[in-house]
Amino acid sequence: MISSQNETRIVLIGRTGNGKSSTGNSLLHSRSAFHATQSGRSITRDCQVARYQYTDTCGQRKALTGVDTPGFFDTDTSITNEIVERKIASQIFEMTAPGVHAFLIVIRIGRFTPEEKNTVDFIRHIFGPDAVRYCIVVFTAEDQLDEGQSLEDFINTAPALRELVRACGNRTFAINNKLNGDPLAKKTNRLIEIIDNMIRNNNGTYYTNAEYQRIERQRQEEKRRREEEERRKKKAEEDALIVRAKEEERKKAEQEIRKIRAEEQRKREEEQRKREEDQRKAEQRERELRNELDSAQRSRRRNSDDDNSISLVRALQTMGLGNAMPPMCSGGMGMPFSPMSSGMSMPFSSMNSGMDMPSPSMRSASSGIGGAHGGRFTGTYMATSGAANGRPIYEGPRGGQYHMTPGGHRSYVRK
């Protein structure tokens, strides 16, 4: 996009039929930018704008903006100069802001009228008194000059025209818009050079006034508003992107946290299952060990009882009782038991030999037994759940009853 610094803005003003539209088309290298035809009535009813981009001799891209205006002194009496002036004033500023580089007052050779000198007054009324410093008088229908007649000669033929040219700083140019190709291009390029020289003479500035400044301020304000709106829009988009990125990051983080927590939960459950399995195995092993221990204890008790029985039998055999021992009976814990003490009258006779109780001869024999440890066999036996069950009970020489341990020691019976 070409900046306003590289844009030249021109306004074509003149009487209806003088060739404003054709001159604008020639400058813009176009045949249709503006509607042009030979007519006594104005074809251009409103201001029209068109642009042309080109490269200057320095290789810099530039733009030429031309504005065609409704014609003054229209043959249609309903279109007065005041109406045309108001219409131009209401439209031109928006089209040429921030200002005009050149006003081209278009006059047709051969049909100049004295009232056309008032065109400068119209320009002053619309744009202000200083606008004439930016005016160039452009003569169309150059081919209508008499043979050997110069443009200056033609200007000097009409004092009103000479006054108009003098008011515009004697800046003039003649063109034949019927030309084509290079001849027309050379003419238009020469006119653009004249416009550029005038701009340089005006310190490189364009014409502006309070209205242009107001419009320019309005345009700049609108530009700032659009830029601010664009910035807000861009910032909103960036903020939305940031929010979306943060939301995606948050969701990603939450998903990662859920994944970590799920993995931790899985590990805890796995560890719990392992602990429960280990505990179950430990309990199972404990039960097995207890069963083995109980079985071993029962086996030891059985072996101990067998050993005690064998020891008792051997002791009785040693005492000469042989196999005539009565069966072991359980009375109280650690209490001696005898048929007499239980109220049973069981004489020791051959009739009771089936009970394996000692006969009187055995009893009398056992009465004398005990010399080895000095005790007297009482005829009773230990009745207990322990290893002493079934051992013979003896009475000591000084009283007290006892039984003999497998190690040959006395173990007195508590009463």
Largest sheet: 6 strands, mixed
Coarse morphology: rod-shaped
Oligomer: single chain
CATH architecture heading of the largest domain: 3-Layer(aba) Sandwich
Give the proportion of residues in helices: 40-55%
Average predicted local confidence, pLDDT = 81
The CATH C-level name of the largest domain is Alpha Beta
The domain count comes to 2
Tally of DSSP β-strands: 11
Give start-end ranges of low-pLDDT stretches: 322-371
Can you identify the CATH superfamily of the largest domain? Answer: P-loop containing nucleotide triphosphate hydrolases
Structural class, by secondary structure, is alpha/beta
- Please tell me how large the radius of gyration is: 71 Å
Number of helices: 8
Task: Provide structural commentary.
- The protein has 415 residues and is α/β, with parallel strands linked by helices.
- It has 2 domains: 4-208, Rossmann fold (3-Layer(aba) Sandwich), CATH 3.40.50.300; 320-412, no CATH class.
- 45% of the residues lie in helices and 15% in strands.
- The protein is built from 8 helices and 11 strands.
- It has a 6-stranded mixed beta sheet, sandwiched between helices. It has a 5-stranded antiparallel beta sheet with strand order 7-8-9-10-11.
- Helix 2 (81-96) packs across helix 3.
- It is rod-shaped and about 190 Å long.
- The model is unreliable at 322-371 (pLDDT under 50).
